[in-house]
Amino acid sequence: GINAEYMGDAAVVAAKTAVTTTLGAVSGGFSALFLARVMLKTWDLDSLLNGILAGLVSITAGCSVVEPWAAIAIGYIGGVVYILVSWAVEKIKIDDPLQAIAVHGGGGVWGCIAVGLFATEKNVKRAYNLDKDVFGLFYGGGAEQLGVQCVGVLSIMAWTIFWCFVVFTFLKLIGKLRAPAEYEERGLDISEHGSLAYDNSHMVLEMFLKLQAEEMQRQYSSVHKHVADIRPYEYDYLSGTPQHTPMQQYP
């Protein structure tokens, strides 16, 4: 109370931002955890942690202009969006092991749109010192701000897609877009950084043994082919003459 009185509106905005951000994170983790329980039939820690991140991403755009109850709703929906987008990305077989599309893409789009729904007139004026009456649809502000938020989302998507296309096309042309296949098999945490990112030592051991077996198989195939090349025919030891029987008849 003393800090808010001394610092004025800036302290009020900062305090509200801290509260809404925390509430968004908690509700996002809550909804993601329980929705994952329904869909996966297990309590999934990854879903909880990514749900918290999705809640944080969702509330970022509106943290200073929405009320605490709205922050709970935004974060909760953000957790649901994360789970659904993650499921969709997996279904269409997009490789996103960190689930960045679901967390940052899904949560970010929803969070920007949510501003056009939940922003209050008083909070907008206090946070941005605007004279114009701009606030969310649910508070009687009409669809103007909601439309602005949607245009902003589409603009960000267009800018991102364009520059990603330019950068990734260039990387592909110079052969740097993907890691070598053996690096992908082992995992970039080992190949590039020399250590495990997760406690999955048994999986790494299984992968190592698999790769070792494949390498031995390749070496065996190479030796077998070489022997077949230098001994293309059988040899009749009784007559001392080669017989024209191709080597490939041997198993």
Structure commentary:
It contains 10 helices and 2 strands. The chain has helices at 2-7, 9-40, 45-60, 68-91, 100-118, 121-128, 144-173, 181-186, 188-191, 201-230, and strands at residues 233-236, 241-246. A two-stranded antiparallel ribbon has the order 1-2. Helix 4 (68-91) packs antiparallel against helix 5. The protein is elongated, with a radius of gyration of 30 Å.
- Based on the structure, what is the oligomeric state of the protein chains? single chain
In total, the number of strands is 2
Query: What is the terminal separation in angstroms?
Result: 87 Å
Measured as a percent range, the helix fraction is 55-70%
Identify low-pLDDT runs: 1-7, 229-238, 244-251
Task: Give the key terms.
single chain; mainly alpha; two-stranded antiparallel ribbon; 2 strands
Task: Sum this structure up briefly.
Helices cover 70% and strands 4% of the residues. The protein is mostly helical and 251 residues long.
What are the SSEs and their pairings?
Blueprint: H1 2-7, H2 9-40, H3 45-60, H4 68-91, H5 100-118, H6 121-128, H7 144-173, H8 181-186, H9 188-191, H10 201-230, E1 233-236, E2 241-246
Antiparallel strand pairs: 1-2
Helix pairs in contact: 2-3, 2-4, 3-4, 3-5, 4-5, 5-7
